[in-house]
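Exercise 7. Predict the joint structure of the components listed below.
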Amino acid sequence: MLDKIIDNIKKDFHNSQDIIFRKIKLKNNNILLVFNNTLTRSDNINDFILKKLTSLKRKITRDNIYNHLENIVPENILVDIKDKEDLYTKINSGFTVFIFEKGKPFAVETRENLSRGISEPMTEQSISGPKDAFTENYQTNIGLIRKRIKTNELVIDEKTVGKQSKTKVAILYMSNIVESKLVKEIKNKIDKIDIDGILDVTNIRECIEEKHGIFPVIEATERPDKASLFLLDGKVCIMTENSPYALVIPTFFSDLFHANEDNYQNHINVTFTRIIRYISFLIAILLPAFYIAITTFNHETIPVTLLTNFSAQRDGVPFPAIVEALGLTLVFEILKESDIRMPHLAGSAISILGSIVLGDAAVTAGIVSPITVIIVSLSAIASLMFSSVGMVNAIRVWRIIFMLFATTAGMIGIFLAGILLTTSLTSKSSFGKPYLYPLIPLNKKFLKNVLFKSKIEKDNTRMPILTDKNYTRSNL
Amino acid sequence: MKKIIILFITIFLLSGCSYRELNDLAIISAIGIDYDNNEFKLTAQVMNVKSSNSGIAEEESLIYESTGPTIAKAIRNFSIRYPKNAYLGHLELIVINIEAAEQKLDEIFDYFIRSPEARSSSFVVIAKEQKANEILNPNNENKGNFPIEGLKTVLLDGTKRNGTIYDLTFEEFLSFYLKEGIDPLVPLIKITKNKGITASATIIEEMAPVQHNKVLKTLNQKQSIAYNTINNNYYDIIVDCKYQDKDFAAIVYNPKSEVNVELKNNKITVNIDINIESKITEIDSKINLTNKQIQNSLKKEVDKQLKNYITSLIDYCKENNSDIIGIGNKIYKNYFKEYKKYKNKNLYEIADFNIKINNKMYRYGNINKGAA
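Solution:
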């Protein structure tokens, strides 16, 4: 009879070689163990299950084995198998399934730890503050947050999404802070997802985002400390299996200007750095457009010495300013993209080729003017100051829009593009929360807090837009 | 999408200026205006910048010349003879020949205020002895390096630290010119030819008032200083005085002067209140500067000298029937109904002048006694 079961399972798995069947004989009773050897730890099976089974003194029945294992192997989870579908899911999740000639099968968790250890953050690096990052392991990730917020008010709601992938999705929030309406809305949206597979948490983001704008309205972070801080603000985090990122809902525009360092450094220094960030945002978006406008339309806006300098540098350049600037932007994007895709070992070759050979040679050959190289690279470097990839890409798109407007109408074009940018930002919302909060709608206290970091004792309340209870953060 | 379409349409409706690449522009830094045989002759100094191999911009200036019945036409005519577009947005200096100023000043003003491009904060000077063309292009070549930056410094220094001229911008010139009852003073430019073209060869050290269709006699230095004191134009200047027949120099600074005109029973009284601060900077006499009495008399000498200057200016106005101080303008502002009566009269002959000088002299240098 067991052989028939083996044949059935083999047939359903299309003869996959990683499914292992082991028949053991205990006091004339045949038991079949089925597991996937790529997902399980074989020493786990040997040490904790097979050895323990031999020490069983009582009569060999399904229930006796179940109780015995439950008592002596407390680390591992034992579950009953409901149906065939459940059986296969368990095998594919790293369980070892016990099948008996008489009685219902059950499964023991013998999962192999397939993820890498906790490592340093790759994209959101910082000088001060904790240096651990989320990994692909779901339990570890949640543990990293639990480790920071040791209260029973931290709720972890779990859902399974994906028809084929059956990915676990966790919704984390502080039940005593968060606005319950927001949690309900997020859960509803996640329930509505009907998709084959969720391979990363960013898939969830795409599914639940209301409007697909350019600026990110839902941020992903790989830092547990950042995620915990957002949870304490009353935001909601979403994590999935196999993803080293957590989504933060809602994300405001101002959050994109804040780095991890900000929480761990002197507030005056942070204020200074933030001002630099705002300036570099403007440089990143406006500088090439401004350059095009003043060299093609509004020559009178700059001092004559600068004008003659620009004029001398543009002397003999065959292309109009916009073609030059767009071309260099394209070259920069190519360099950036290939630098990301290249293995690290070859990375330095690209930077040498890109910066020295391409840049210097192009200027010497007279194809581009040195000032355009300066302008484009300065604005590109300024945009890389932001840790959010979505932000960097959004800046890139808007930079080109501004450049096109500047070519058609100079300064007036820049102002019109500015109006366009402002309208697009003000009309955005992140799960019903205005994107530009606390600027629009205006909340002076938090605007000051967000623009410039205030002392920790002054930053004692939570944003009223994020919470409907428990406003006080500290009583310093 | 609708929004974007509307925005794009507005761009093309709103954008008036045409697209011009920077390297197609001939940046004119100085323009000279002559008027001969019913034609304007323009001389423009164009910044010609070329990148050299070492990457440093080589600057030299070219001279563009053109003629035309109107200024606008003459400026367009530049592009017939030269490869680049004339661009007046960074104009620094306008040199107007005396004949052009006397005959065609209104037309010159009209072009420069009507043109959206021409910079109205450029300085204006009048060439009294030479043609504007001779000043900008003394060697009659196509290349020159007319010292425009140097001249700007001379103009500013002459105003702020010598008080002998006033750096009149085009805007100010126009506003003075259009005001009722005041004559603008314009700096005069000339060139000493045999020294070549350097900043020292081009001289701006005098001013003359411009009346409608007429450039009057040149002011002397004292009168210019008096004018600048009354109008609070300088930071600090040197006033030479004499004390017991020995020379001494005082720095006069921070002028805060006021001119008030009173009109009572057909009698005009002009009160000139000069508030200045001063300090001794050089003295050719062995006197004890800590002595209060000597201090007082030194102060009085400075006051006397300034009073002299102002009286000399008033005399000039009387002689040439020119209202430099702007008494007519004050009457026009404050006693408009009676202004008609005085419009064509020489006010300086009928008015009484009260000159009050309030001088705070509080520094006598680091040594107590004169070195001599």
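Discussion. Chain B touches chain A at residues 3-4, 7-8, 10-12, 14-15, 17, 19-23, 25, 27, 29, 47, 49-51, 55, 57-59, 87, 89-90, 92, 117, 119 (CB under 8 Å).
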